[in-house]
Amino acid sequence: MHSTRRNLPQLLGDARRWFDEGLLTALEAAGAAPVSPTQVQLFAVLDDQGSTVAELARHMGVTRQTAHQAVHGLVAAGLLAQAPHPASARQRLIRRTREGERAHRQASTILERLEEQLAERIGREQVDALRTTLEAPWGRPPGPGDLSQK
């Protein structure tokens, strides 16, 4: 018989979408420039000192082309800027602009409110336990030999 039980990656994806939808809705209501979920994810992984497109793509788990498109949309919106990389003439560092820093702070505040709303819905203990579990070191993903049935 086929199980209808959803696996953890599906559940984690739903949880991420819940936060993304809440964030995007709140940003839109506040009059912020429209951004895509991919652009939100890029903003979340962007290092404060700047990141290359390749680093962003790796942290987001997307192709360089997808990260590049997201960067260009955010540059056009005035939220990001490109600067020469000090260690490589071929690479550019992607950094938040002053407006991008403001938007990042605004998004952080909204995410804190969403977390509080989640705690009201499912309980503070559950949210704290979820955070503790997700912050625990998981180690590297198992290799193919580690997944064989014993």
Number of helices: 6
Q: On the 0-100 scale, what is the average pLDDT?
A: 91
Major beta-sheet overview: 2 strands, antiparallel
Choose one word for the global shape: globular
Q: How would you spell out the order of helices and strands? A: HHHHEEHH
CATH level 4 superfamily: Winged helix-like DNA-binding domain superfamily/Winged helix DNA-binding domain
Question: What is the CATH level 1 assignment?
Answer: Mainly Alpha
Structural class: mainly alpha
Secondary structure: helix percent: 55-70%
Order of strands in the sheet with most strands:
1-2
Q: What is the level-2 CATH architecture name?
A: Orthogonal Bundle
SSE blueprint:
Elements: H1 8-29, H2 37-45, H3 53-60, H4 64-76, E1 80-85, E2 88-96, H5 98-122, H6 124-135
Antiparallel strand pairs: 1-2
Helix pairs in contact: 1-5, 3-4, 5-6
Notes on the structure:
Pfam families: MarR_2. InterPro entries: HTH_MarR-typ, MarR/SlyA-like, WH-like_DNA-bd_sf, WH_DNA-bd_sf. This is Winged helix-turn-helix transcriptional regulator. With 150 residues, the protein is mainly α. The chain has one domain: Winged helix-like DNA-binding domain superfamily/Winged helix DNA-binding domain (Arc Repressor Mutant, subunit A). 59% of the residues lie in helices and 10% in strands. A two-stranded antiparallel sheet has the order 1-2. Strand 1 and strand 2 (88-96) form a beta hairpin. It is globular, with a radius of gyration of 18 Å.
